[in-house]
Design goal:
The protein has six helices and five strands; from the N terminus they run E-H-E-H-E-H-H-E-H-E-H. By secondary structure, the chain is an alpha/beta fold. It has one domain: Rossmann fold, CATH 3.40.50. A five-stranded parallel sheet has the order 2-1-3-4-5.
Length: about 120
């Protein structure tokens, strides 16, 4: 089980955010959430996480921009957090663009929740 592992979900869709939260909470993850990249950076200033699930298309600051900002943080632990991109528009980006932004891995929408749980377990351990 994922005792005390902290996941930050960056997702502007309340439906996806709530579903993801419920599924990961059943796995004993501690969940925090944000609606945009700016909120992610504000939360990261105060707390540490084991993994970030990052929607790519969000208002205010999108997931690609936010990931690049995280990778440039002075705190090396936070700068190296595994970041999983979650997007319905993966075709808009190449794998190379995800890698250049600092995305660790990506999951397509609609989410396969078994794959989500497996990915979170693997990358947050």
């Amino acid at each position: 089980m994922a005792e005390n592992k902290k996941v930050l979900i960056a997702e502007d869709s309340s439906v996806i955010q709530n579903l993801t939260k419920k599924i990961l909470m059943m796995q004993n993850y501690s969940i925090h959430s944000a609606k945009n990249g700016k909120q992610v950076l504000e939360i990261l200033e105060k707390e540490n996480f084991d993994i970030i699930l990052m929607d790519i298309n969000m208002p205010v600051m999108d997931g690609m921009e936010c990931t690049k900002a995280i990778r440039q943080l002075k705190d090396k632990q936070k700068a190296n957090i595994p970041i999983v991109a979650i997007t319905g528009n993966a075709k808009n980006y190449s794998i190379q663009e995800f890698e250049e932004a600092g995305i660790t891995e990506y999951l397509p929408k609609p989410l396969n929740f078994d794959q989500l749980v497996e990915t979170v377990k693997r990358l947050s351990s």
